[in-house]
């Protein structure tokens, strides 16, 4: 087995595993009960799935221009997904769409007025 065949096989396995993670994320978005768990399903496995797909494409294509574009895509996903999830989580908490009885810890109780959704002192 040549090195090229090994890289193609590793790339195919990575693509398949990345697609599986993306499928799990999509199923989680549809099946999970509340906003925060759906948000978790939308960010964690989806980002890992994208990383594995990009790795698989890198191993299969073996072209520096493709690697540069894929690295840019992964960087953009790594920087925007946590920020977007944080903003959606805080906005949904302020809008009262979070089931606080399902939370293990609620650190926003003192920071957000339940009636208005904004800080009590400002």
TrEMBL record:
Keyword Metal-binding part of the UniProt annotation: no
Coiled coil: none
Domain of life: Bacteria
Residues that span the membrane, as ranges: 12-30, 42-61, 67-88
Keyword Transmembrane appears in the UniProt entry: yes
Family annotation (InterPro entries): PhaG_MnhG_YufB
Keywords: Membrane, Transmembrane, Transmembrane helix
Family recorded in the similarity comment: Belongs to the CPA3 antiporters (TC 2.A.63) subunit G family.
Name of protein: Monovalent cation/H(+) antiporter subunit G
Phylogenetic classification of the source organism: Bacteria, Bacillati, Actinomycetota, Actinomycetes, Propionibacteriales
